[in-house]
Every structure is written in C-alpha cells, then in structure tokens.
C-alpha cells in the first residue's frame, strides 16, 4: 500500500514545479499570440522618461529640405496629370498623427521601430509611417499604447514603387541591410544612379508620390530583371519623431 | 527586500531585462548597426547552473517572448535558443579563471552563429526565388557582426551573471 502511494506521488503531475512551468508556458503562448501587446505596453511605461527630445536638428532639417524640393516637383507634375485624368488614389493629409520612436531596431534581422501611439490614438494596422525625408514603413501591429512599424529595410517588406524619370513601376524589397533592393521587371529599363524613387501610383498599399529614396548603384541585368540599390531619404536610425498617415485607398 | 533578492528571483529579474535590452537596442553597444545577441548572454549562465532541461525550457520561453516582440511572423528564434539552452546545460564550469572567461566568449559566439544561421535559413526558404542571392552578403555581415559582438561581451556579462545566479541559488 505504502509502495503504491510512493510511486503515485512521484508522477510528474504531482510536482508543483511542473505545473508552474506549464502555467508560464501557457502565459507565454498567450503573449506570443497577442504579439507581445502586454510586454510592449509595459515597455511604453518604463521607457517613458527616456523618450527623444529636440536634437539631431541638422540631420532632420537637411532631410526636410530634400523632401520638400522633391515633393514640390512631384506635386507639380501630379497636378498637370490630374488635370488630364479625372481621379487618382488619394491620401488624407488631415489625419496625420505625430509619434515618437520609443524603440528602434535598425540593424541585424529585425528592422522595426515602435512608436508611442497605439490603437487608443486611432492608429490602424496598415497605416503609413513617414519621417523627415519620406517613407519609413507600414504599421504592422498595434497595442493599446504602441504601434510597431516594419521598416522598408526589413526582409519582410515588399512595396510597389515608381521611378519617375523613366516612368516605370518596380518592387522595393528589404534584404536586411540599410539599402533595400529595387527590382525592375524589364531588362532594358534605363535606370541610372541618382534616379529618384517614390511610392507607386499603382500601389494598393501606399498613397502615391511619397518620396522613398535615390538609386545608389545599379547591378547587372539578371534573367530579364534589373536590380538596383536604393539609398533611403528618411534615415530610420536617426529619426526620433514620425508622422502616421491613415490612408484611404 | 534582501530576502526577495537572495532567492531565485534575481535570475528572473535579469530574465525580464533580456527583452528590454532587445527592444532598447542601445546604439553604443552596436557594430555595423548590429547588437550582441542578448538572450544567449543570459541563457549560458542559467543553463550552466540549472542543467540542460531547464536550459531547454527557458530557451523556449525566451524564444516565445522575443518572437512576440518582432514583427516577422514567418520566422522564429525558438529553434536556435532551444538548441543553445540544451547545449549550454551540458557544459561544465571551469576552475581556471582566464580559461573560464574566454570559454564563455567562444561558446556564446558559436551559439550566436547557430541562432543566426538558423534564422537566416528560415528567411532563405521563405523568400526562395531568383533574387535570393541578394540576401547573402548582408546576412553574412549580420551573422558575423553578431557573432563578434556576442563573443566580445560574453566573458564580461556571463561571468558576472554566473556569480549572481550562484549567489542567489545559495
């Protein structure tokens, strides 16, 4: 009788420690499924005293000048085109939300930033995030107080872009370094270093004519495709304040 | 308070710091924009003290937390961390002070290489196409920078954490 009791007591489910570990495991699975919302909100509160102040003025002002010049040019052209064509996809400029960057992962595999505005402030998944210079990425996940943005440099990012000089659409894919690759599905595309790249008017994800970057180098054509490295105008590793655009597409 | 700190809770407090460091991403620790692989620096001392099974379980826990903080829903850090947790648990402490310290660096570098490679292979399989070759050079650079940094910081951080964990265990 005693023997039986001893054996039955030594089963794994009789150990409190195992149940605690199992409980932690279930809790973490819940955290995983909720995409770390609890943890990100916790981080929001503990990082609050360290949020960015007013610095890096020079870098930002330079990028703003560059952005304004390019934007004016594009808007002029767009205006002319709009007079001819009746309608285009529109972005709502009145719905901008300003947010500060509270966590930044701009190196290695994970290229994302976390902003201090979340679903409580009206940020939605799929909103566009722009910084001084141009497009940074898209909101991929929101918690109550924070939103996480996939940067254009992330290997998960793929967006349609427009090369203005040669009037051609291409695909911008992140490859895990600071210079995403532009793929043009035409071997004879006359793309050159210095060409300007903006968001595509044909894109279903982005509003048109948001400045993205400048062609830094062009690779040799490969299997009817031409690839080029793009230097982004908005520098995610120095930007502290961004604008979130709620898009109507 | 003292009683609270002298129990196992101290290691748990450092456990909570791992995702915070992962999110914080302090630039002055970085090299080529890459950070040391923080979870390994906690996992090594923990597994060395508590054994393989505990290392494996906490590798899984760390993987779950870090996956929930990154947006790449298609890729996971769990296999690398589970393997490293299990492997670190089989490593015995070394008496020689210097050899012990350099061993932490070497082990963490290798662990970081393993985790980085497993992660890269997932990206490679997910994005398998003609343009896959574009991923090779930046990925290699990421892995090597991470291996170097993890190995560089491991002797310092792991030895201190090991002392703290041993103290809290007593």
What would you note in describing this structure?
The complex is a heterodimer of chains A (249) and B (170). Chain A has 249 residues and is α+β, with helices and mostly antiparallel strands. Chain A is built from 4 helices and 12 strands. Helices cover 26% and strands 29% of the residues of chain A. In chain A, the strands form 2 sheets. Chain A has a 6-stranded antiparallel barrel. In chain A, strands 6-7-8-11-10-9 form a 6-stranded antiparallel β-barrel. Chain A is elongated, with a radius of gyration of 24 Å. Chain B has 7 helices and no strands. Chain B has helices at 2-6, 9-24, 38-50, 52-69, 78-89, 97-126, 133-169. Chain A binds chain B through residues 21, 24-25, 28-29, 31-32, 34-36, 39-40, 43, 46-47, 103-110, 112, 114, 140-141, 148, 150, 154-156, 173, 175-178, 181, 183, 222-223, 225, 227, 237, and chain B through 19-20, 22-25, 27, 30, 32-35, 57, 60-61, 64-65, 67-72, 74-75, 116, 119-120, 123, 127, 130-131, 134-135, 137-139, 141-142, 145-146.
């Amino acid at each position: 009788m005693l023997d039986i009791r001893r054996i039955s007591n030594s089963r794994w489910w009789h150990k409190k420690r195992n149940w605690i570990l199992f409980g932690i495991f279930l809790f973490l699975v819940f955290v995983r499924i909720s995409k770390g919302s609890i943890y990100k909100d916790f981080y929001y509160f503990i990082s609050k005293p360290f949020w960015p102040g007013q610095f890096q003025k020079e870098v930002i002002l330079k990028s703003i000048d560059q952005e304004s010049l390019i934007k004016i040019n594009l808007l002029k052209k767009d205006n002319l085109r709009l007079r001819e064509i009746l309608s285009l996809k529109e972005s709502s400029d009145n719905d901008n939300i300003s947010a500060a960057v509270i966590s930044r992962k701009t190196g290695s595999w994970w290229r994302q930033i976390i902003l201090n505005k979340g679903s409580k402030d009206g940020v939605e998944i799929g909103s566009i995030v722009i910084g001084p210079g141009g497009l940074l990425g898209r909101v991929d996940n929101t918690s109550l107080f924070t939103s996480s943005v996939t940067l254009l440099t992330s290997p998960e990012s793929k967006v349609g872009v427009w090369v203005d000089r040669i009037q051609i659409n291409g695909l911008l894919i992140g490859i895990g370094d600071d210079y995403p690759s532009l793929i043009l599905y035409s071997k004879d595309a006359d793309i050159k270093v210095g060409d300007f790249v903006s968001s595509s008017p044909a894109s279903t994800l982005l509003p048109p004519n948001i400045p993205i970057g400048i062609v830094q180098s062009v690779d040799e054509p490969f299997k009817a495709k031409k690839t080029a490295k793009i230097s982004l105008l908005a520098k995610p590793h120095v930007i502290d304040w961004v604008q979130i655009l709620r898009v109507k597409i | 308070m003292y009683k609270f700190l002298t129990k196992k809770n101290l290691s748990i407090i450092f456990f909570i710091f791992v995702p915070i460091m992962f999110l914080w991403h302090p630039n002055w620790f970085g090299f080529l924009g890459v950070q040391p692989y923080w979870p390994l620096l906690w996992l090594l001392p923990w597994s060395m003290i508590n054994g393989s099974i505990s290392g494996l379980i906490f590798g899984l826990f760390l993987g779950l937390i870090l996956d929930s903080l990154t947006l790449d829903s298609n890729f996971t850090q769990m296999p690398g961390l589970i393997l490293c947790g299990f492997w670190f648990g089989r490593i015995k402490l070394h008496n020689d002070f210097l050899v012990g310290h350099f061993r932490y660096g070497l082990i963490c570098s290798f662990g970081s290489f393993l985790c980085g490679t497993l992660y890269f292979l997932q990206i490679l399989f997910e994005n398998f196409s003609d343009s896959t070759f574009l991923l090779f050079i930046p990925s290699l650079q990421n892995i090597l920078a991470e291996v170097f940094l993890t190995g560089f910081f491991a002797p310092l951080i792991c030895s201190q954490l090991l002392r703290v964990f041993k103290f809290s265990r007593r």
